[in-house]
Amino acid sequence: MRDFPLPLALTARLSPVVVLAAAGWALTSGPSAAPAAEHEPDQATASQPASGASASAPAAKKTYASAPSPCASVPAAMLKSLVPGAKTAGREIPSTDSKRRRTCSWNALDGYDYRWLDVSFEISVSDQAARTEYHKRVKEKSGGGDVPDVGDAGYSVVNLTTEDKQETREGTVMIQDANALVIVTYNGSDFETKKAPATDEINKGAIKAAKQAAAALESGRHKD
């Protein structure tokens, strides 16, 4: 195989040093904003009565208490299809709070075809907090459409970028289920033709992975 330069954005993605330095979803493939859940006050504390009151409000019930393992959320057979050549075990990105936020990444260059997949779980303090964050991110990534039959809400969008004449097509799927968010990013490039995979391929791949991740989240309901 002949050597060829990778576009700057993809070169950064393939560098573990850059990925670790950008932990917390600062990757170009993921949402740029840090999850609001990590900065929101706990509802039980926020709802305490004024000083001198004799009773305190109970903590709000949360459907999901912690984030499941993202690296175990997508079946190996699907990973081999979506990211040919990648290690199916994936690599979990360090998090400042692994109970509230966990992300796993898979990427590989198979011949001239490059694929990257991220799966992230984010746990908010309440359903409303997750819903607010979901709608905020949907607004930031306008131009997509609803994904039916997933959690409380689902959204998918695909974008094409070009750098140094190299096309990259990226799909993002966001699912809100109670107080949790499932975020999946899937993208690809062909370094021989410099063309990107078809929109349908990227969109369907991202949705398949997101539905599997949502099912993995559901299976761990009420577990710490």
Describe this structure in words.
The chain has about 220 residues and is of the alpha+beta class. The protein has one domain: Protein Transport Mog1p, Chain A, CATH 3.40.1000. It has 6 helices and 7 strands. The protein has a 7-stranded antiparallel β-sheet, with helices on both faces. The termini are far apart. Residues about 15-55 have low confidence and may be disordered.
Counted by DSSP, the helix tally is 6
Question: Any idea of the CATH class?
Answer: Alpha Beta
Give the radius of gyration.
Answer: 19 Å
Order of helices and strands: HHHHEEEHEEEEH
Termini gap: 48 Å
Extract low-pLDDT stretches.
14-55
Query: Based on DSSP secondary structure assignment, what is the total number of beta strands?
Result: 7
Task: Give a concise summary.
This protein has 224 residues and is α+β, with helices and mostly antiparallel strands.
Write the layout of secondary structure elements.
Layout: H1 8-14, H2 16-21, H3 43-46, H4 76-82, E1 91-93, E2 101-110, E3 113-123, H5 127-140, E4 145-146, E5 153-163, E6 166-177, E7 180-190, H6 199-219
Antiparallel strand pairs: 1-2, 2-3, 3-7, 4-5, 5-6, 6-7
